[in-house]
Amino acid sequence: MNKNSVLFKASLLSISLVLVAGPVISSLIPLMQQSFPNQSTSSIELIATIPNFGILIFVLLSNIFIKFLGKKNTVLLGLLIALIAGIVPVFVDNYTVILVSRFLFGAGIGLFNALAVSLITELYDGDEQASLMGLQAAMGSIGSTVLTLLVGYFTRFGWQNSFLVYAITVLPLILFALFVKLPSEAKGTEEKSEKVKESVNAPTLVLMVFALIVYALFFVVMLKTATHLVETGIGKPETAASILGSITLVGIVVGVAYGKIFKFLKHLVLPIGLLGMGIGFIVIMLANSIAMVTTGAILAGLSFSLAAPFMFMLVGQVAPKNSTNLATGVLLVGINLGVFLSPTINGFLSKLFGMSTAADSFLISGVGLLILSVLSFVVLNTQQKKQKSN
């Protein structure tokens, strides 16, 4: 099928629906705690977070699967594993089995996580690539929003039935199997392309560290918003859920319009995104009302949705030839580490500067993001001047 057809693009983008679906069952933790009274709270919370470990490990191993199976079959295998493992808790009430199934769910996603991005950078370029990268990010936000709402609906039928939401994985599985035919596979040149050894260069590693820091700083909004509301007396913890939900919604809007935004801002989209995130955090820190906190969260979320897709586009540009998928995997490792280490990094910085409140955390992260904005502006501008001179 022609890569420029709407059905091909929709099928390619559909696999991103479940990329960030792991945490959508977090609201079930209190109910699971009741079902497993012998397990500690941290052990129950592990059910929500362990998919990230599966993703982290299998993002690194995905190239081995691609070598033997090809890209399309690797995506299909990952989707199939995620589908089966995702719905296992519906039928099993054993803690260990559920924990293993959650790890395997993340492993399945990890197999095609990098391909969800690298296939776009390989098949498309220019404004079309930017537009599809924005839509790819939007698909993740749409999937997360829809599944979160469905979890809430299915909860009335018992927490185990809420895992039925992962049956949505059958949709991208069917679409990708039927309507995505990759050029190299269609021409029978897959074996030849697989013999090219992929490698990672210094710019890719620098970008990985950069993404790790950005995500670690940004994830503070997820960790500290509820605490900030309580400490300041502005609101209750449950209010934070609706505030954080606004971040997902603006992510969808920005993702859909990303192509046009990138066409206008070009490389400035990253420093502007980081600048907006930093300002949003400062607004939250200074807030004295729910409306002001929400405004800061929306600004930060909107700006994050500008910066994140650009980093995936950038890694496709700086990666060595024929190494886009490996480089994207390395970037994803940095992102997952950033999210995972966010509480640790935040705690370290708070101790370093002698600060302890949630407002202090927003101040530290906000200033850090503003510094990264200036740094990215200088680096990208220098890069642009070098390209023009050449």
Automatic annotation (TrEMBL):
Compartmental location: Cell membrane
InterPro entries: MFS (IPR011701), MFS_dom (IPR020846), MFS_trans_sf (IPR036259), MFS_Transporter (IPR051788)
Transmembrane segments: 42-66, 73-92, 98-120, 132-151, 163-180, 200-223, 243-261, 268-287, 293-314, 326-349, 361-380
Entry membrane topology: Multi-pass membrane protein
Keywords (A to Z) from UniProt: Membrane, Transmembrane, Transmembrane helix, Transport
This protein's record includes keyword Cell cycle: no
Lineage: superkingdom: Bacteria
Residues annotated as domain Major facilitator superfamily (MFS) profile: 6-384
Keyword Glycoprotein attached: no
Membership in a protein family: Belongs to the major facilitator superfamily.
Protein name, UniProt field: MFS transporter
Source species of the chain: Candidatus Vagococcus giribetii
Lineage, top ranks: Bacteria, Bacillati, Bacillota, Bacilli, Lactobacillales
